[in-house]
Amino acid sequence: MDPQQLRTFVTVARLGSFSEAARELGYTQSAVSQQIASLEADLGAALLVRRPVGPTTAGRRLLEHAAPLLVRLAAARADIARLAGAPDARLVVGATPLALGARLGRALGEVRRAYPRTEPDVRVLGQGVLPTQLATGEVDLALIDGLAAPSDPLPLPEVGPLTTVALDEQPVAVALPAGHPLAGRAGLALADLSAARWLDAPELAPTGARLRAVAGVDGFAAATRYRGTDVRGLLALVAHGHGLVLLPGPVLEGVEGVVGVTVTLPRLVHRTELVHGSLPEGPAAVLARALQP
Predict the structure, then answer these.
(1) Strands (E), the chain
(2) pLDDT reported for residue 219
């Protein structure tokens, strides 16, 4: 398949319009139509219904393949560009909210000493976004946190050849309101809380789907959705009974109205990893070395 035809198909399907896709891509409408026709001829299947514009059954199946294919192509281009290009002063660091901390601050100090003209750009992003942005070169390296079994790597999506280095592992705790009947426990089995009210905060904590996977039971329904990266706001909702959330134990220490109870079954940790692609010598390589234990 021609990658450009694939991009054009994805754009038409997303916008539901040949003319809008042509405008976004900078083509004529006839060029867009020709690319779609060529792709359909290549695959031997109709991919789009024309009126109204939308994917056929074959088109929907191709869309499932298209996103990872296009990411891998962009990742390959970015990887070669990093290897072939000369080092410059650019340094873009991506980090999930709970992965930020003093370690990064200290390491950036070493970068400034080695490259005084570098102006670091730190971007706080979700775990679902960062691996792709890393692979495609939008960020140079990333600090990503999440839930894992002890000593296991984070379950990151396959977006290209990436290197991961474990930086930290912390115990995992359930954040409960201070008056919760289980707040005095020394430890809890995650499965015992499957019927409780949970907060859905995908930028900060494991989703319901992830909790079901690690606990091996159904449940963990979201009572309240939280779309943000401020952990204080999230814990204020916990304190007032709007739902439970799974977080690294140290984050819950000293929070008014909230008690953290360690998850003892299954064995889980909150893991932080340094993730990067190829790193030619430059600010990003210095930062990667400075971040490692």
Answers:
(1) 48-49, 54-55, 92-95, 121-124, 141-148, 163-177, 188-189, 198-200, 222-225, 245-248, 258-265, 269-276
(2) 96
Which of 46, 218, 116, 225 has the alpha carbon at shortest distance from 233?
225
pTM of the model: 0.73
CA Rg value for the chain: 23
- Are 111 and 290 in contact by the 8 Å Cβ rule? The answer is yes
Specify the DSSP element, H or E, that contains 121. Answer: strand 121-124
Q: Comparing C-alpha atoms, which of 114, 165, 79 is closest to residue 282?
A: 114
What b/e string do you get for 217-246 counting C-beta neighbours within 10 Å, with b at 16 or more?
A: beebeeebebeebebeebbebbbeebbbbb
> Could you tell me the two tokens for 232?
């204080």
CA angle, residues 26, 62, 8, in degrees to nearest 5: 5
Joined together, the tokens standing for residue 147 give: 């839930």
Element at 258 (helix H, strand E): strand 258-265
Report cis status (omega within 30 of 0) of the bond before 283.
no
Show the low-confidence residues of the chain (pLDDT under 50): 86
One-letter amino acid at 37 equals A
**Predicted local distance difference test score (pLDDT) of residue 51:** 84
